[in-house]
Amino acid sequence: MSQHMMFLQGNEVCVEAALYAGLDFFAGYPITPSTEMAEMLSIRLPQNGGKFLQMEDELASMCAIIGASLTGSKVMTATSGPGFSLMQEALGYAVMTEIPCVIVNVQRGGPSTGNPTHVSQGDVNQARWGTHGDHAIVALTASSNQDVFSITVDAFNISETYRTPVVLLFDEVVGHTRERVLAPEPGEIPLVGRLHTSVRGGVDYHPYLPREDGRLPMSDFGGVHRYNVTGLFHDMWGFPSNNPQVVHGLLRHLVDKIENHANEIARYKEYYLEDAECVLISYGSAARSARHLVNSRRPRGERLGLLELQTLWPFPDQIVREKCAGAKYIVVVEMNMGQILQAVKAAVPDPSKVFLANRVDGDLITPTDIRNILRLIWGKGV
Amino acid sequence: MERVRMVFSGSGGQGVITAAIILAEAAVLHEDLIAVQSQSYGPEARGGATRSDVIISGSEIMFPKVIQPNVLICLTQEAYNKFSSIIRPGGLLLTDSRFVKTERKVDARQKELPMYEAVIEKIGKPIVFNICMLGAVNRLAELLKPESILRVLEGRFRPELLEINRQALQLGIDLAEKTA
Questions:
Q1: pTM
Q2: Residues in CB range of A108: below 8 A, 6 or more apart
Q3: How is the beta sheet containing A354-358 ordered, strand by strand?
Q4: B24 with A178: Cβ contact below 8 A
Q5: Residue B101, Cα to own-chain centre: how many angstroms?
Q6: Quick check: B47 contacting A, CB < 8 Å?
Q7: CB atoms within 10 A of CB A242
Q8: What would the CATH number be for the domain defined by A269-377?
Q9: pLDDT in tens, A252-301
Q10: ∠A210-A212-A217 over CA atoms, to 5°?
Q11: Annotated domain spans of chain A
Q12: Over the stretch A12-44, which tens digit does the pLDDT of each residue have?
């Protein structure tokens, strides 16, 4: 048997994957159901020469990882809904200053302190629009522990590639479910390192002057270059500017660098979509129930299929449109009041075909729940 | 292997979740089976009703929770009252005779074993009650080789703790064999 086979919770897998991706700085404030990440990293990071900081709250945690990233570290914080709320202001700062970082939100029931030990997917739109101002964001999720590993490594790679915060939107069931994981060998999944400037010390470095390919090489803060970083709109030097041309150019850049790459950032899995009359769209732990249902009904001739989204933001409109082109019914399975439902309705030509199968009581939606809702949609009664 | 759906229930601090993790880990790492373990609990650190679900199977497991267990373990009266009705007909219901007074008949193989008393009498440390239960249920339901569970225990405990866990596992197996 492989020595790399592990039996871990999703939270622990996320930690293993983050370390695989090169995480060397974590700041956080432990909160259910993400606590195991802070616990595990408080042991593992110092062993690997990294730094673990328990901060006074989530505002400070978010600020600490931004600062550490600017000095050259690969950084992460982990929280749940209440803490994610407190991180929103600094999350916007990371967007504006284009500082790579990974924020894990293991979702529990909200609003407020809500239902701490139970599952929810209620923070999907918070990840998208929780911080103020026009902006783009990347949010990824996964349903199995093997996928938690690969999607976590992806999160670090995307954050470096596009110089952006990436939100990992897991949920209580994914975070706490233990199952088998095969750890990849070092080097098996390619890693994206920090793109450093080739400008030497003593030579003017423009921190916000893109290369021809649009990427912005970084210089470790506190190193050989002196430069300014601000949450105000800024010019190529990093100094504040309210010049309309500069403001417009920067805002477009922040949005376009993500939205124009939506297809490259899109991660998804598909099951039986070729001839599906009814396409289920789901993500996170809800997708496990959806897939269970699809697999159990297919042998009985029901033409069900599943599109499992792993990238939630930027929303993969084009992929959803294409995959649902032949569907009579599109049913979004999620554990909230219909957050991805709205995005799906906006993406397809006929939104009247799109329905919601949800559960919001803290229990994982079951295959039977979905089946009962499908029967209602099909007009067959429960 | 046929799919086994188990619910371990009791009170926070009894080691119910730990026992479930050890069993599922043994299945995955030492018997090359597929297993999924999950848990539900309240905000308290100790006390409160605790439940852990384990599914062991030869094939991929998608929905990770158990709705109708064919093996149900209840280590408190509260857990028994709450969960005894969900057992799958013909399943196995294991309770501890000190903590649970079984009241109604369910369509299941009901086993009441004096696990807690045996642990106190033979080992003197209530902390290994959960491992005694694990030995008993593993034997009654004929799940895994005891060595597979032992290997997980070996990886988890220092030598002095390992010894009493080993004794507790054997004690549970013996109790189950006596009743079988």
A1: 0.96
A2: A32, A33, A80, A81, A114, A115, A116, A117, A118, A119, A120, A171, A172
A3: A268-271, A304-309, A278-282, A329-334, A354-358
A4: yes
A5: 18
A6: no
A7: 8
A8: 3.40.50.920
A9: 999 999 999 999 999 999 999 999 999 999 999 999 999 999 999 999 99
A10: 40
A11: 5-182, 269-377
A12: 999 999 999 999 999 999 999 999 999 999 999
Paired tokens of A102: 């990974």
- CATH class, domain A5-182, is alpha beta
Residues A64 and A56 sit within 8 Å (Cβ to Cβ): no
Beta-carbon contacts of A134 under 8 Å, excluding residues fewer than 6 positions away, are A251, A254, A255
**Residue A2: its pLDDT value, please?**
46
Q: Which stretch of DSSP H or E encloses residue A219?
A: none
Task: Output DSSP code: residue B13.
Answer: T
- ipTM of this complex prediction, to 2 decimal places: 0.95
Task: Map residue A335 onto helix, strand or coil.
Answer: coil
Q: A88-115 pLDDT, tens per residue? A: 999 999 999 999 999 999 999 999 999 9
A5-182 against A269-377: fold identical: yes
**Would you call A178 and B38 a contact, using CB atoms and an 8 Å cutoff?**
yes
Rounded-to-integer distance, Cα A134 and Cα A255, Å:
8
Question: What is the spatial distance between Cα B93 and Cα B23, in angstroms, rounded to a whole number?
Answer: 17
Is A7 in contact with B25 (Cβ distance < 8 A)?
yes
Helix axes B146-156, B129-140, angle to 10 degrees: 160
Cβ <8 Å between B40 and A117: yes
The residue in chain A having the minimum alpha-carbon distance to the alpha carbon of residue B32 is A1
* Token digits of residue A358: 């949800």
Which residues of chain A lie closer than 8 angstroms to B36, CB-CB?
177-179
Domains parsed from chain B with CATH numbers: 4-179 (3.40.920.10)
Name residues whose C-beta falls within 8 Å of residue A357's C-beta, 6 or more positions apart in sequence: A280, A331, A332, A333, A365, A369, A370, A373, A374
Positive or negative torsion for Cα A321, A326, A327, A328 = positive
- 3-state DSSP of A135-183: CCCEEECCCCHHHHHHHHHHHHHHHHHHCCEEEEEEEHHHHHCEEEEEC
Count the alpha carbons within 13 Å of B60 in the hemisphere toward its beta carbon: 11
- Strands (E) across A173-276 are located at 178-182, 268-271
Tens digits of per-residue pLDDT, B70-110? 999 999 999 999 999 999 999 999 999 999 999 878 889 99
Q: Assess whether pLDDT exceeds 60 at residue A1.
A: no
Structure tokens at A215: 């990427």
Q: From chain B, pick out residues whose CB is under 8 angstroms from the CB of A304.
A: none
Q: Which of B24, B62, B65 sits opposite A291 (nearest CB)?
A: B62
Cα A17 to Cα A156: distance, rounded to the nearest angstrom:
10
Which chain B residues are closer than 8 Å to A118 by Cβ? 40
Q: Is A176 touching B (CB cutoff 8 A)?
A: yes
SS3 of residue B91 by DSSP: strand
